[in-house]
Sequence to fold (739 residues):
Amino acid sequence: MATFLYRIGRLAFRRRHFVALIWVALLTLAGVGAASAPAAGNSSFSIPGTEAQKAFDLLEQRFPGMSADGATARVVFKAPHGEKMTDADNKAAVKKTVKELRSGSEVVSVADPYVGHAVSKDGTIAYASVKYKVSGMELEDSSRDALKEAAQDARHAGLTVEIGGDALQTAPETGSSEVIGLAVAAVVLVITFGSLLAAGFPLLTAVIGVGIGVSTITALANALDLGTTTSTLASMIGLAVGIDYALFIVSRYRSELAEGREREEAAGRAVGTAGSAVVFAGLTVVIALVGLSVVNIPMLTKMGVAAAGTVAIAVLIALTLIPALLGYAGRWIKPAGEKSKLLGGGRRPKQADRPNMGTRWASFVVRRPVAVLLLGVIGLGAAAVPAASLELGLPDDGSQPVSTTQRRAYDLLSDGFGPGFNGPLMVVVDAKGSDDPKAAFTKVGDEIKGLKDVVTVTPAAPNKAGDTATITVIPDSKPSSTTTEDLVHAIRGKGADITSATDAKVLVTGSTAMNIDVSQRLNDALLPYLALVVGLAFLLLIVVFRSILVPLKAALGFLLSVMAALGAVVAVFQWGWLSGLMNVEETGPVMSMMPIFMVGVVFGLAMDYEVFLVTRMREAYVHGEKAAQAVVTGFKHGARVVTAAAVIMIAVFSGFIGSSESMVKMIGFGLAVAVFFDAFIVRMAIVPAVLALLGRKAWWLPKWLDRALPNVDVEGEGLRTAEERRDTDPDGERELVRV
Fold:
């Protein structure tokens, strides 16, 4: 592989005009496609195979036009102090608002609070329920604007008005976060390279890659039902790996220049060596993202595949466009150890032979491997302790900041009607196979009334055919509580007895039940996903490193860092530690998508650092150095670059912590902490300590497996000249290591 990529690097360097033209054409084509493509809303959300989804599908068949999974809004009214909602003026204002709400083109129905008995017992709070034809993520902006305007008109009449439900649900804004990440990345790259031009290449190519990827997603969004969340994930991951991969190759190019090679040769060798690491690092990221399909949530699968495509583009850009740009830059890119005149004078440092910080740190770890290993493992183990108390759930309006109208509506409804009112359960009774459907409906209602944590059970509402009915159940506890989850399971447990007695099927659905089913699906898929991703990557790393113990150490280190990061997330967002510093207004269950999402994203980035750092060690070992010295050499050339890449990623992810959306804030914090743990504790401390303890055994591989595996030559042995081989092996006794 190294020889093949070496040729690509040299070809791209020589034919830079042609290569640059191809990428500009692709960017233009993707941009034109995105601009001319029909507008697409956010991806529809479905969870095939879950009971909640089966109930939604049944309602679509038996209640045509009901829009069971359509968006809902609750416009909550509160009377001024000392007044009642039943007072004439207040009642007239509400009636006027209800009339305005019914005029919307996407509105299915609006329930008048005075007709539907939606006024609290003390008469101070009332609400109007609005039902829409499409889901909250597909709702037109005009419908949201009409909803807000109607509420504002009621406020002018003197009422307190807030809006709850998923009708105001929108994709979180992330533009400012990305700008912050890019700004920090620019500063780190300038410090790392000592050159504005060299620092600009990774940023430029990352933006081009993300531009092509996101534009392609936008162009295909309508045809493939891709939503804005898909492009958000693709841009975040694409930006991260795009900067990383370009950083690796530019850094290796400057190292090759420092060894006295001509620029075209240096570009070829940089792509042949660092490019090999980039290819395999990219493959691990693609495996992690495509592996999200095992969860069997269509939206998550599309997000993973689209992000994987963006990563593939980042790899191709690093292998072709970077050497082409290096060709354009010429002598403006300085060898490693030199700075541009603008940043330091364009001359070598006076103490050129002084070991850099990576060398000094690795030498310390090699001398004290046991102490470093124990300190790292114990520290991450302590951070992982809170993960034992992990509770999963999906956010509702109760987790929104108190400054939002959704949260204020949630609190008003809790005050007026009880906490469970914000999460009603819809029980669907399918009595098509029953001899007496009405008796079945009655029995289901009676059975549910006898359960704990039930406040209200509405009479069954049958369809026109009389073979299916819906029953609304109001729990006594809030939607995200374990008590409500237990109630859902209890109703479903009663369903088996009811079916045997009446031949009627009982299904529980609604947003609360759907959240519970999604959390369960994600929880059940976590271990299979881990096994798939880690297993495939383990096999891939065996080919890269030609070792059993190094890939095993890489996988175990990743698991340790992810558990520690989950522990930090639990401590902050579930227990409330440092909640003031993080501006976490409401603690509660961790978002159910968080663990599997963290595993997918962090695993890819962790393997980036592992592959780039350890391949330099492997390269030094194969070229004749002893095992301990190879660890130091790997850090000498790779630690600075890996540190820069990790700092950039932490900055990118930390930018999301400032979001007002609790879900985005949690993802940003979790990913930033995970990258910190993995890059600076696992890869920079535990990895060299383990390799120092293992010594030559780290590179052990059974002879039968060595013969069976393809030789991909990641270390670039095939690129060495006869003279270089004589310099490191004057007696001709050492061959490519086959332990």
About this structure: The chain has a mean pLDDT of 82. The first helix runs from residue 2 to 14.
